[in-house]
Specification:
The protein is built from 20 helices and no strands. By secondary structure, it is mainly alpha-helical.
Length: 476
């Protein structure tokens, strides 16, 4: 094992020497490491002086952790420029041929460059955080707890791995530094949104929820690393000289995978859809387990918090009156629940699962699915609080249409999960773009052939059958 890692260290040393000789990288990092903590301290001091006038203790307590999160994030954005030209920059300068012609394995070359690409921004981030915490300790600001500091450091590490690994993937797939820099927004913007979400958790969340976000970031970062190693091929890097957007090839590849040799609708179902469903058997089983876990978590959380939240409500009738008294956000009164409304709402949910999963290797897509499961568990727990059996409610209020709707959601999640696994699995002789197009075609087959019909039937049952059964049970 150690002998296999020795070439990694050789590549890392070479990359580190190149970075230490480049003042254009060192100077911005040095400025951010030394000056930015002082700027954040001045900003925090001013914000606290302003907030103290209104007694917003929650914001004050979370302001220092929020500043730590930002201080750790900005050095990563500077080092992203170096990571983007890791491979394509050397290719343009003509210095990569000796490295690629060495007897090293592909994963050793890739990992060596990744280690240095992550190490440089992490050192700068940790130094900046340390400087800021020293400044905070000398003022009358609230110091974050040791556990929260550990969470922030792990989050900073996850951000660095996520951004650098994504930048190196772009560097491998690009043919020029200009093209790689233009694609940098696809890394910075999503991670910036991620930091904003984590900031919300810092202000209004709790430690347990932040740990869940932390695990999600680390899983996503490891998937990016895995994808880069899986699809890095030195022959592919040397063989491409120009980027071309071949829409015709993309469409032909998609259509061929979508039809899978079928010549009729019946044959398409027997061959293309059935083959895809067999491939989704294991991911579907995983989605069933995730649904059960999400439902249990939602049920447990509502059970713990319902007594305090509903202490002034004594019956379902009062709860219904309180909900009905809340004014509509759009000023149009009550929303008319109809079959088309339910159908389109479920279509949007599955589309969001696919979109978020496509951008995050299934992580956010599975979280959307998990949220739906948690909502079902929360509703069951809410009714159980008022004395309605959750099993009776599930069998009469969810199961009639759930027999069609839940399998559709599970298949959608399974397709997203299978796409993520395929992208991080080495496939010799196939480019990452070809693998991605095939997975989109598989999702389209399941979506058009199975999910839409299931959701259509579910919306009709949920509109015309489930309310009748539920009203008879609850006597509303």
């Amino acid at each position: 094992m150690l002998s296999n890692l020795k070439p990694v260290w050789i590549v890392a040393q070479r990359e580190l020497r190149d970075q230490l000789r480049d003042w254009r990288v060192l100077f911005p990092l040095a400025v951010l490491t030394t000056a930015f903590p002082f700027l954040m301290m001045v900003m925090a001091r001013g914000v606290i002086d302003f907030i103290n006038q209104y007694g917003a203790d929650l914001v004050i307590d979370a302001l220092v952790p929020f500043s730590v999160l930002l201080i750790g994030f900005f050095p990563n954005t500077i080092s992203l420029v170096v990571a983007l030209e890791t491979f394509v920059g050397e290719k343009e300068r003509g210095t990569i041929e000796p490295l690629l012609s060495s007897p090293m394995k592909d994963w050793q070359i890739y990992l060596g460059k990744l280690v240095v690409g992550v190490l440089t921004p992490l050192i700068a981030s940790f130094l900046a955080i340390a400087v800021y915490l020293v400044l905070v300790s000398r003022l009358d600001l609230t110091m974050p707890s040791a556990g929260l500091v550990a969470q922030l450091i792990i989050l900073t590490t996850g951000h660095a791995i996520l951004m650098v690994s994504g930048a190196i993937v772009i560097s491998v797939q690009s043919t020029s530094v200009k093209a790689a820099n233009l694609l940098a927004s696809f890394i910075i913007i999503p991670v910036a949104f991620l930091v904003q979400g984590e900031s919300v958790l810092l202000f209004w969340g709790n430690g347990r929820i932040l740990w869940v976000a932390l695990v999600g970031v680390m899983v996503l970062a490891s998937l990016f690393v895995r994808m880069g190693i899986a699809h890095f091929q030195r022959e592919y890097l040397l063989g491409r000289e120009i980027d071309t957007l071949n829409i015709r090839w993309m469409w032909v590849t998609f259509w061929r995978s979508f039809l899978d040799g079928a010549h009729s609708i019946g044959e398409w179902y027997r061959i293309a859809v059935a083959t895809t469903l067999r491939r989704l058997a294991l991911p579907t089983l995983i989605m069933v387990l995730v649904f059960l876990a999400g439902g249990w978590l939602g049920y447990d959380q509502v059970t713990l918090n319902a007594p305090n939240a509903l202490k002034d409500v004594s019956s379902l009738a009062e709860l219904r009156e309180n909900v009905a008294s809340i004014p509509s956000a759009n000023g149009l009164g009550e929303v008319q629940i109809s079959a088309p409304f339910i159908f389109m709402n479920n279509i949007r949910a599955t589309a969001l699962m696919f979109l978020f999963g496509m951008l995050t290797f299934g992580v956010l897509g599975i979280l959307v699915y998990l949220l739906n499961a948690g909502l079902i568990g929360g509703v069951l727990s809410l009714f159980a609080y008022f004395g309605v059996s959750p099993w009776v409610l599930f069998s009469t209020g969810i199961l009639p249409h759930g027999l069609f709707e839940l399998p559709a959601l599970m298949l959608s999640g399974a397709a997203v999960l299978h796409m993520a696994v395929a992208l991080v699995t080495p496939q010799t002789g196939r480019s990452m773009g070809e693998v991605f197009i095939d997975q989109v075609a598989d999702w389209a087959k399941v979506f058009l052939g199975v999910i839409i019909p299931l959701l259509l039937v579910a919306s009709l049952i949920e509109t015309y059958v489930t309310p009748v059964i539920l009203k008879g049970v609850l006597h509303w």
